């Protein structure tokens, strides 16, 4: 038996708890029916496992046929739902998983946890800088956004737009189309576009709730589809680890991300729904009431400034510089890794992380050059610090997501779950089940990123074991469900920032957006059912579109006369 450590604080309770955990749970004496009926020989039971993030080979317990393999990830899921504290929940899931893997030995547990953390930047005796580069890009993106805010460029663009938009439809379409410029980050999009579009939509009596809906439904859906974004970068990094963990060589991280984006039916059709609503004034539920009230009650319009503070070009040039430099770097690094040059081949073999760091650096430099004279010298350090600090939460979630992904792989959670699914659930139902599960989790926790971190490794492991051809559909379903639940959740940061950017009542935004989100979710669920049963992405896309069109026809309300 493992010797219990001496802990001075609440020592007796801790010692008793440790003995119970070690003797009964970890030594498998309380629940024998749920464990393998024929235990493996001792030599096979403690098989050496070496993973992407584990620099040192260590004897880890094999849980591939044990109920305990699902405890860490689902404990993290349950705690996230109950506490709504994603960082704490992921951290506990990681610690419990490590304790199981090392048989409850605290010294081995700390050593293995240290190896996992070090493995984020050091692997196989050499530096592995892919993940640190992602963190650098997130910090650069935060600085980029903060400098644009300090420069007043957002308000300058809003003043320009107010002089060129002619009607309500134009105001709504402008707001929706701005996502093609600000898709680099959902926070940036919700706050920047809100500041840009709000004076314009107020002028043409578009309700603040309609503005919040457009902001929210173009933020996460576009960011999750684009590789040149904070979302895309982190997802690609997660995918790279999953592909290595499960020895999948036929896909590259970038190629996998592109394929998943094409199957992300919720995100794609949420964007389509936004443009339908903006063009046709398709108002359902409480949105119709808010729109009618906006027509009858004018907001106080913001006076057009003299342009002495911000400049329009100080917004446009840096954003274009960020996008162009990142894409150029992706093509260049991909071409260097390809035997023959082609655009598709370049993107499939590109070094995404290096490209993002290069693009983020160019974007920040462009902001600095364009804002000389509009930002006080003393304000630059404040802007840089505020921007970097704004990304600390996302960075923490991402690091813990990487670690729990390693734990899930080492405990063979997917192997165990796949045996249950194989006997009780048709593999074709996996995508729609994962879509619904991810939606519920994201709704309860209010975070897409936490859902990605917990659900993507499980989805990948289950698909690889049950039917490898379903790995991309299953992970796409998780991505779509995470965005869907995030949209519906009143505690989602993106939802809160969208109502903040639109300056509308938060609950009004949640209740008015919910009918649109659920309508698209129902259509997407039908698409994932078709995708899983037929393995045809095109048929799944078509099914989603047809079901959405039918639902819109059934739910259509009286259109506003002044659209």
TrEMBL record:
Pfam families registered for this protein in UniProt: Na_H_antiporter
Topological type in the membrane: Multi-pass membrane protein
GO cellular component: plasma membrane
Keyword Transmembrane helix: yes
Keywords: Cell membrane, Membrane, Transmembrane, Transmembrane helix
Stretches that traverse the bilayer: 88-107, 134-153, 173-197, 218-243, 263-282, 312-335, 355-375, 387-408, 514-531, 537-555
Presence of the UniProt keyword Cell membrane in the record: yes
Principal location listed in the UniProt entry: membrane
Family matches, as InterPro entries: Na/H_Antiport_NhaC-like_C
Domain spans labelled Na+/H+ antiporter NhaC-like C-terminal: 222-532
Record's subcellular location: Cell membrane
Descriptive protein name: Integral membrane protein
Gene: mleN
